[in-house]
Amino acid sequence: MADAHPSRPALVTGVFFVAAGIVFLLEGLEVWDVSLRVLGPVLLITLGVAILLGGRTRQPPS
Amino acid sequence: MSTPPPLPPAPVERSRKAGRLAFGLLLLGIGVGWLLGALGVDIPWELVLPGALIAIGGLLIITARSDAGHGGLITAGVVLTIVLLIGTGFNVPLAGGVGERTVRPTEHVIDREVELGVGELTFDLTGVDFQTIVRGTELRARVGVGELIVIVPEEAPIRVEAHSGLGNVQVFGQEEGGVDAEITTPAPVGAPAITLIATVGIGEVRVEHG
C-alpha cells in the first residue's frame, strides 16, 4: 500500500526538474537567452533551497 | 502439503521496478535519438532533452507517495540537468558533431552558420568576396568544447564579436581570457556592416587575418 505522506525529497526534486525543464525548453525555443552569469547563481539558490527543504524531513538520531 | 502461492511483490519492490523502467526507457529514448542523429535524421535535442527532464519531474511528483524507488529517476534527472546546464550555460550545441572540421565558403556558396559540438573547427573566409555580401549579414561560427579558428582576409570589411564561455579569445592580436571572455572589434569606417559572431562554450576562439 502507498504511503499516505508524499516523499518530500521526491516532490522537491520533481518540482525542481519540471521548473528546470521549462527554463531549458524556453531557452531552446529561443524565448529568452540565458547567460551563465544568471543561470549559475539561480541554480545554486534553487539547489540550496532544495537541500534545506529536503533536510527538514530527516529524523534526529535517537 | 501444498506449497503456498508466492506473495505479490512488496510496494517498495514495485516502486523500484518502476524507477528502473523509467530510467531504462529514458536511456533507450536517448540512444535511439542519438542513433537517428548519427544516421542523418535531424533531432531537436534542445527541445527533446528539456521535455524528458519535465517528464522525469512529473513522474517524481506523481510517484512521490510511494515508499522508495526514486533513485533511478533522480539520477536520470541530475544527469540531464548537468548536460543541459553545460549546453545552455556554455552555449554548447548538443547536436553539432565531434572531431575536426574545416569550412571554406567560396564566392558563390557561403555558409552563414557553422557549428561543431566538440573538437576543432576552422572557418576559412579567404575565398569569400565580401563586396557581394548583403549589408547587415551575420556569419556565425560556434564550437561547444574545443577550438574555433576563423581566417579573415586582410581587406574584409567585417565587424567581429568573439566570445568564449570559459577560455581564451584572440582577435587580430587582442587577447582576453577567463569566464565570459569577449572581444568586439568595429567594422572599418565606411565599410558595409557585416558581422562575424564567433563563439566557443569552453575553449579558444582565434580570429586572424589570412
Structural account:
The complex is a heterodimer of chains A (62) and B (210). With 62 residues, chain A is mainly alpha-helical. The mean pLDDT of chain A is 73. Chain B has 210 residues and is α/β, with parallel strands linked by helices. Chain B has 2 domains: 79 residues, no CATH class; 112 residues, no CATH class. In chain B, a hairpin with a 2-residue loop joins β4 and β5. In chain B, α1 runs parallel beside α3 and α2 runs antiparallel to α3. The model of chain B has no long low-confidence stretch (mean pLDDT 80). The chains are: A mainly alpha (62), B alpha/beta (210). Chains A and B meet through α1 and α2 of A and α2 and α3 of B.
Question: Cα-atom Rg of chain A, whole angstroms?
Answer: 15 Å
Q: How many strands, which pairing sense, and closed or not: the largest β-sheet of chain B?
A: 6 strands, mixed
Fraction of residues in β-strands of chain A: under 5%
User: What characteristic shape of chain B results from the CA principal axes?
Assistant: elongated
Question: In total, how many domains does the architecture of chain B comprise?
Answer: 2
Q: Any low-confidence stretches of chain A, pLDDT <50, length ≥5?
A: none
Key descriptive features of the protein:
heterodimer; A: 62 residues; mainly alpha; 66% helix; B: 210 residues; 3 helices; 36% strand; elongated
